Amino acid sequence: MNFYYAFIVCVTYLTQVSQCERLHGQIYSSIEGSAACFRRLNGTHQMGCSSSDGGAVGIVQMIKDVEDAQWIIKNSTSGPYIAVVSTSLFQSVINMLIDDPSNVAGVLLYDNATMRPSSFSQESKCPNEYSAAPGSTCSSSGDTVWNTKGTGLLRKDIPFPIFFVPDSKADEIDKIEKCYNRYNLDKNNQVGVPLCSVQLHSFMYAAVNSAVCLRRSASSAFLTPTKVCDPLGDYNVYYSLFPRAQENETDRKPVTFVTARIDSASLFDGVAPGTASSVVGMVTLISTAATLSKMIPVADEKLYANNILWTLFNGESFDYIGSQRVAYDISRGSWPPVNPLSLSDIKLHVEIGQLGGSLDLFKDNVTWPLYAFTGNMLAEEIIEFLNDMTQTGNLTVSPILTSNLPPSSLHSFKRILNVTDMPELLLVDHRETFANMYYESALDMSDTIDYVYHNLTVGTNGEFIPTSDLLSKGNMTDKEPQVKISRVANALAQTLYKRVTGIPFVGVVDTSAHMVDEMLQCFLQTPSCRLLRAADFMSADHNTADRPASLYVGVATWASTPAVYAGHLLALLTGVHLGSNKTVCDELSEPGFSYYYLRGWNNTGVCVQTTMNFSQAVSPAFIKSDYDFTSNEFSTWTESVWQTMWARVFVTAGGSGAKLAGVTGALATIIAAFITYWLSVNSAVIFATSLDAPNPILRTVNC
Amino acid sequence: MDLNKLPNDKKLELCRNYFKVGCVFLPFVWAVNAVWFFNDAFKKPPFDEQKEIKKYVVFSAIGAIIWIIVLSVWVAAFQLNRVAWGSVGDSLSFILPLGRA
């Protein structure tokens, strides 16, 4: 009995002491925090990456210079290889690897904040080239291009998977490099030895093009009701200074249409910071709207005969999904759903385009030169608008008269509504070519515009410190992006004030750089910020993510957060704050207004009355029946479905063990065969039995 | 079942039934019939029912061969042209391939 107890104690002790790690865990080490390149499709092509169903396995090769990449392609002895390359070398080697992919299993791209490239853009040289309005001269194969640094990788079918490891996960790269240094350094001796390897798994379900993948998703064949792709899309956000719902056909106020875009893109899933590609423009629009709503209270609507309609488009990176839909809906008289806008109501369209790209260039200057592209300079509205803007804000806004407009929603309106004479204006901070060197890439981060968060206290009722106070107290300098953006927003607000009221603004309202500072933090650093906390629904759990939200438009079946953030910010900053509690707030229903019960600045809840609303940003291609996907009329982008994406590092065996096992097995078989043969030949000698006595088993069976 | 233990009339009945069943688009039954009764039809010493059995065996064999040819041609044509046929190819597919054309 004593022995039995001793045994139990011994076993229990051993299982607790010994490290019970699973064999799987001992072999593989997963690469955490990486983002994979995935497949997108349009009407005619598939683009992006996919691994095979089981994942791509390759030997690690750290790419320290271009020769390392050439070695993989030309001189390597084993293979295939996974090229581990930094963002600074990526653009020099990726085309080489794509052109000759026979020995390349995949690419692991890592970002190192200390050695970023001076340019990094996987977007094409002419973004949305095929959805451009007539008059555009940008051609990817020609000399006049907007995005000079664009490599066009985002629009290429890449034959192997690519994973991106952000700077915050540098320890994962250290892990791989350590493994590489231990096993793979001897380049000439890689046959039959253990080697450090990486497996990248990002198998994509969709293929060929959008028409094929949507057809396959729709077919509900027995056993395989698999959805293989989803249309790209999300929501546009719109808000009018005065409610438009009560207006009727005859006394509709003409509107000034002020637009910007929400989304950005990158090659990798969940990484689309879009700082200078879209955030600065969007923040400028929201700040302008917030300022104007303070200058003209919504209660004064009866006094004025003009209205402002603010719209934030989503999905603009992918052939202008949001603006194409709005233009299409306007053409069939169904946008906004309540009191639809007709083309003749729009007296001026101002698009706040790509801003922020040149902020770094002018970081030592107080000035920040802007450019206003317009196709019809002679329009009175344009001249007046530009004059007002330059005078009120003390800004330099140089007009550029051309039919070759930079990528912007203006293209959609010109193309779909077929208008040539609508006064339009595109505000950007670049001239012939983009100033943003990281256009729609994973590196278009807050340092692109030299943004540093100041973390100043917001008043209990959402009061921001006026820019003049910030400057006089030395909290900020007027060279900082927050101040420059607030000045542009302020000039825009004052100009729009004059458009609505007819007289220049003389009050004390001013766009606070403090508000811009807070708002930029929400979009560039973390959605768990003061402004978004205040703008969130009272009932919602607040997002505690510590990295910027991806501004990628995503698939239409899944609402992504940026549009919701932008909409709620507009509601909070421009809406009328009522004293009602939640029950009363939920029951309020004045036509033309929505009521949101938001968390508010004190976390106590506030009822906000706003005209802000959302509208679908799904391309007309997906709502028109029998649309021809090859017609190139509307955006046809879809995103492939995938099951999982993961990456792991491990050491592959040299193969000697497997060889030994094979040889032993073969020998054992031969010996066994030989012994059997020998036994059967000599059975009479070994098993000396009488032939007369038949086998009793055989005798009982009568077949 | 051991055919050798079956009386000849039963053999004929069995062979005829197999042929009939094969007529309802079951070429594999014809193929089995042809192989199974081959000895009785051609190798065994003559018996009364042999002529009938021979007839069914030959017809089963011819039918099975035609089926095999037709099916092989179709399978080859389908596999080679599924992608080119586009939506027709997809509608004819029982399992659609993931991640490729």
Structure commentary:
The complex is a heterodimer of chains A (703) and B (101). With 703 residues, chain A is an alpha/beta fold. Chain A is built from 19 helices and 23 strands. In chain A, the strands form four sheets. In chain A, strands 1-23-9-5-6-7-8-2 form an eight-stranded mixed sheet, with helices on both faces. In chain A, strands 16-15-17-14-12-13-11-21 form an eight-stranded mixed sheet. In chain A, α3 links the parallel β5 and β6 (81-86). The longest helix of chain A has 26 residues, at 656-681. The two termini of chain A are 57 Å apart. Chain B is mainly α. Chain B is built from five helices and no strands. Chain B has helices at residues 8-23, 27-36, 38-43, 50-81, 87-92. In chain B, α2 packs across α4 (50-81). The N and C termini of chain B lie far apart (48 Å). The model of chain B has no long low-confidence stretch (mean pLDDT 93). The chains are: A alpha/beta (703), B mainly alpha (101). Chains A and B meet through α6 of A and α5 of B.
